[in-house]
Amino acid sequence: MTDALVIFTPSGKRGRFAVGTPVLTAARQLGVDLDSVCGGRGICSKCQITPGYGDFSKHGVTVADDALSEWNAVEDRYKRIRGLIDGRRLGCQAKVMGDVVIDVPPESQVHKQVIRKSATERVIAMDPATRALYVEVAEPDMHEPTGDFERLAIALRDQWQVEDVACDLGLMRRLQPVLRKGEWKVTVVLHKGNHDARPRILDIFPGFNEGPLHGLAIDLGSTTIAAHLCDLADGRVLASSGVMNPQIRFGEDLMSRVSYAMMNPGGDVEMTRAVREAINTLAGALAVEAGVTAASIYETVFVCNPVMHHLLLGIDPVELGQAPFALATSGSLSLDARDLDLSVINASARVYILPCIAGHVGADAAAVALSEEPGKSDDMVLIVDVGTNAEILLGNKTRVLACSSPTGPAFEGAQISSGQRAAPGAIERVEIDPATKEPRFKVIGSDLWSTDPGFSAATASTGVTGICGSGIIEAVAEMRMAGLVDQGGLIGGPEQTGTPRSISTGRTHDYVLHDGTAEGGPLITVTQGDIRAIQLAKAALYAGAKLLMDEMGVETVDRVTLAGAFGAHISPKHAMVLGMIPDVKLDKVVSAGNAAGTGARIALCNVASRDAIEATVHDIHKVETAIEPRFQEHFVNASAIPNAVDTFPELSQIVTLPDVSFNTSGSGGDRGRRRRG
Ligand code: FES
Asked: Which of 104, 112, 319, 517 has the highest Cβ tally under 10 A?
């Protein structure tokens, strides 16, 4: 009998096989991506396929009704107990009897593709470092004495082509009872990171146990720790959460934490302990939220800036506080979670930390590069990850530059008089009527403007409590557009602006955004100090971007991507009115959400992406803002709103900024421009 032609879709892979070959075997020999956890024993149902019958002129074959062996008892039992979609077969049970076309549905592919939901949708191909494998191990034999582990290793080699496995002592201790309980049939959780010479067994279960297996993608920021708990089989995010970084009590920004470590012996150890505890708490909370056991978390990927990176690892960050800003290590790291005291997740869990780009540009910037891929862009894209420290990337296919700029926590609502974190009740959108100077606003938790009927009722449970980061950006930009603030950042007095909402506080003025005192609520104002804090933050951001543009030799950029949890909420128009970002067409400003967190997720779900980002990081040219004299010059110019020297032709097509000046009011002059100049 001649061999049968087997064609797999969607891959198009084809080959000839002896009649009687199981479809799973044919798929493996052709390198078709068909999943299996039980190794063809009819237990896992991962190998489901859909045979096609009839004429396939495209492939030049006609598939007869008996092209596959008959439906068998294993499939029948599986369908009765667990259910199988009509038309599906188990690839390990169905044998090739004639020419056949076989479709591998997405859920049966190991390397299935997951669509990332964001403004710029991208596909993550699943290729996790951790997977479950079912094996049947030979029983011990007095005549051929070998250890149980050695026979397990042989079974993995013979049944899964996994060579030379390793396991740690903790697992070795559990091996014998599990093998016996499973009657020599076990499922192992196997991990192989991109730098691991040997695959290692992280866990072992009696019998067949396909998991599920979970991983954490953690964006460890200076102010917040944000984490996603993902299913390692399909990349789904089962729970996401964030907590404040408890190191804030040692210093709000990075340099103050480095100083704390320098001034207080053992200060670095305290900060390390604090952050590790917070990560453990967060991991536990995520597991509860997702309804999974924390012990099913076998991997954690971290992205973080260099100071967070060192403090997580328990390395004193003192060298990062002074030139030449040497990192203890800039390469990626693969570690045991227990080395970082991550005790809530599985005891054998592994950790991967993305590489840092340089002393001030960390693994978080690398993760943004992995997520946003500036090095694959045809046009010149500026990517700004807005946080306490802004990570800035500029580039296209030819070259990518990166820097980090110390914006401080103002954009996150800190250091703002009525500032608060983004939470229900926080003002997030602001409009000010240029004629009447009257504001209206929206708070998180309600879609109504404050001037809409029903606003009070809609916000009764939350109240109006403060201003979050996006709210303060809009408030300051709207004040500039309404002529309440001049180019230097000064708030005009009531006579100059014509509104009683400008109130004098001695030498300066505040603008009253909301007075809730009659109902026992807060008086929410934008103070001169708030405007100064925003000026400093946005000037640092813009100066960093300009420095990269100088280095690149470009006057303009084609696109701007705003990243960061908070970047998603920034209005491009207001950001440009403030002069946070360079002039560009408004529709060319997009938000990428938490790109660093997405980069962490990609590295978690796809082990090959780790090699890719490590190679990319080598090619990214890093610009050091702290020692670059032009940074100061750009910073001084960028302290004006929007800028003392740069023009904004695209912006001026849609917005005319009033030519007001409050410098002669005796209320402080143009200190904003000189603050750090
Ligand atoms: S491979 Fe597990 S059921 Fe077919």
From this structure: 104
